[in-house]
Amino acid sequence: MNLNFTEFYSKDIETTLENLKTSLNGLSYQEAEERLKVYGKNVIEEGKKKSIFALFMEQFKNVMVLVLFAAAIISILLGEAADAAIILAVLLINAVFGVVQELKAEKAIDALKKLNMPYAKVYRDGHLMQIKTDEIVVGDIIEIEAGDIVPADLRLIESFNLKIDESALTGESVPVEKNANDLLAESTPLAERTNMAFMGTIVTYGRAKGVVVSTGMKTEIGKIANFVNLQSAIDTKTPLHEKLEEIGKYLTVGILAIAFIVFVTGLLYKRDVFEMFLTAVSLAVAAIPEGLPAVVTIVLAIGVQRMAKRNAIIRRLSSIETLGRVEVICSDKTGTLTQNKMNVVKVYCNDNLSENLEHEDIVAKTLLRIMALCNDVKLDLVDKQPQFIGDPTEIALVKFAYEKGLNKNAIEKVFKRVYEIPFDSVRKMMTTVHEVKNDEKLLVFSKGAVDVIINKCKFIMVNDEILPLDQNMYQKIIQANKEMTSNALRVLAFAYKEIDKNELENKNTIEENLIFIGLVGMIDPPRKEAYEAVEICYQAGIIPVMITGDHKDTALAIAKELKIIDTSKDELSQVLIGTEIEKLDDQQLKEKVKEVRVYARVSPEHKLRIVDAWKSHGKIVAMTGDGVNDAPALKAADIGIGMGITGTDVTKNVSDVILADDNFATIVAAVEEGRKIYDNIRKTIQFLLSSNIGEVVTLFLATLLNWVVLYPIHILWVNLVTDTFPALALGMEKAESDVMKRKPKKTSENIFAGGLGFSILYQGFLKGLITLLVFFIGNKLYDHKTAITMTFMTLSLIQLTHAYNVRSNINSLFKMGVFSNKYLNLAFVASFLLQVVVLIVPPLRELFKLSYLNFSQWTIIILASISIIPIVEVVKYFTRHFHKE
């Protein structure tokens, strides 16, 4: 495949397309597939990942592991080859487990990156479609618009008022004006190539179409060594990790101190120096929770995958903990609380409000033309059926016109667009300028918010006659608008005017002195699942707040239906409009936000102030957004939520969470998952630390009593067999029944709050004491070797049975269903079988210095191991009653 790659900015559009062997219809599916194989994926390559061998060697960087490794070598020199073999085997198995955990975490993070892969609008076989940006190839025809991140290097072939922020590439902070028709010299520097759009730069205004000339590492940004990736890397270290690392440091110091005391006490009792050294080091290796951060990462990553299945794509692991603590959700109305399926149901023109256009006069035809042409919807016929691609509001307008006989594609040939002023959330209107065949005049078509458009109009067309827009007609329009908005309709106003071609030169006057044509009311009903989601919010202590650019009456009607506002209080005191926000200073707004549940006619700047006002109360705030101007508010919020369907690349890029379905209920589901994941991490911590404390208590008290209850290898093996599988299984635990019936946890709340620290301590001591009791009984009834074997089995089995206790710190295990966590059941069976194998395989039994156990001995072990369940159940019972009081 020989494509002629050259300085495309110095070539005209026709030559560029010819050199790249493509056309305005784009590539065929087959050709695109072949080019993908030849040129590779459109990605910026990352640094090389660590090899499995490097990960394996990292497992031995722990000082205590190295000490134990040295101890094994000393054992060989002293003739204790069997002990050395077991220690080395356990260390190797432990290292393998560590590598597997890290690979799992890495794999999960890679999966998250794939979930975050953005999409681009590409023409294939003449049809516009969305594909993942990594599938873009040279020769593809791409559409870009305000808010998009340019997905590859493009030679522009069409442009309308296009401005691009190229600071990521050139360092130039002011957006660059682009023009597809510019023809430049070959010596033109990068920053002045105005007919090009470069990968990673941001479209700030206008729209364009371009042909891909470079992808991946061949792009300008791909060539830069110090490339700063615009897509925020998914961070694997969370605030939770940092807390755990800090806790781990304190625990390490404490455990090392206890290990030293065990060593010294053993020497005072004249125990073998090397044996006590091995015991102390083994205790330190087993009890120091160095694997806790890795387990937490895996639990977080598994949780994120589950969230993705519920349409919430998490871009940063650190967001999960914050999600579970959200106290206020500021949500857009359209498409998030509502279905975003617009249908035109009311039309006001010719001073008449009706459910349809009743007359085919000039006014009606003009209104339909504006509806069909003043938008960026793409109309495609698939099997003779119309397919609309674009904004749902604009689709409703084009669809209505299509049903009235106006095919957008057909009339665009008659009314060719020559200029446009795009819609944005500040202007709240859009204007297109069209030339008419065989006519010297140009037609200006505008649509937008009623209050904006009506203030741009000096005239009105009624019954084919153009009249001055006097106060009487003005009030009639306002009344028609009020009637529609009070019925929860979204209302747009439409206007037009004729201008001479030379008037187009003065861009500032294009939208002045317009002729008012009419209003269109569209219904966008609430999502069915939004009703329950709002109710769940209030049950969970979360305040739902609706934010919209729509009219106050429309917003209030939807909010009442969804029960976002409290109808027992004054309704109007719970609604605030943008102009009222502007009159309030920050302190006044801070006081006002506590009672306001609906914000109407707001701009992105208002959103930012609302976030700041809530945060000044110390609240954790989630904010949704879809437009490029929403980025500051999303960044300011504790959780920025971007829209996966309607959101721009820029908003997705700054978001912590992306909603694949743009659904408010998904936000609530994500909060629930966040709470569940945090709960499960606490359970994992409780299980691991109580197990470690159980081991420490067993060895420490036994040494003080001058009992030899376990050998070093036993400690290492118990830690290996009983820690990993149950800890991960607890991370898969289902949400507790009250997870969305309790208030959010405060940011200042410690990970050990709510009695977790007490539970870890008492349960750890309990396990240690029960294990020592079994040794005492075994030593009284049987020989010392059998007592050690019983202790070894009890310490392992009690940790496995205790994992079932940890499933809830308050709720009864029996109410939850003892075996309802299938992952924990599998972990129990796997760990128990590994433990039993050591006992029943004669060579292993000899290596571990164990004796065969009979039925009565097994009975003691099993009874002791399950005794922790009723004891913890009693504590849970009193805890529940204490909470009720």
Structure description:
The chain has 885 residues and is an alpha+beta fold. The protein folds into 4 domains: 8-42 and 136-223, Calcium-transporting ATPase, cytoplasmic transduction domain A (Distorted Sandwich); 245-302 and 673-884, Up-down Bundle (Calcium-transporting ATPase, transmembrane domain), CATH 1.20.1110; 312-339 and 526-662, Rossmann fold; 351-520, Calcium-transporting ATPase, cytoplasmic domain N, CATH 3.40.1110.10. It is built from 32 helices and 26 strands. The chain is elongated. Mean pLDDT is 86; it is low at 225-236.
Characteristics:
4 domains; alpha+beta; Rossmann fold; Calcium-transporting ATPase, transmembrane domain; Calcium-transporting ATPase, cytoplasmic transduction domain A; single chain; 885 residues; nine-stranded mixed sheet; eight-stranded mixed sheet
Tell me the helix content: 40-55%
What is the overall pLDDT average? 86
Q: Which stretches of 5+ consecutive residues score pLDDT under 50? A: 225-236
Number of domains: 4
Provide the gyration radius in Å.
34 Å
CATH fold topology of the largest domain: Calcium-transporting ATPase, transmembrane domain
The structure class reads: alpha+beta
How far apart are the first and last residues' alpha carbons, in Å? Answer: 77 Å
Largest sheet: 9 strands, mixed
Beta-strand level of the residues, as a percent range?
A: 15-25%
Name given to the CATH homologous superfamily of the largest domain:
Calcium-transporting ATPase, transmembrane domain
SS element count, helices: 32
Number of E-state strands: 26
User: Any idea what the shape is?
Assistant: elongated
- By CATH reckoning, the class of the largest domain would read Mainly Alpha
Q: Architecture of the largest domain, CATH level 2?
A: Up-down Bundle
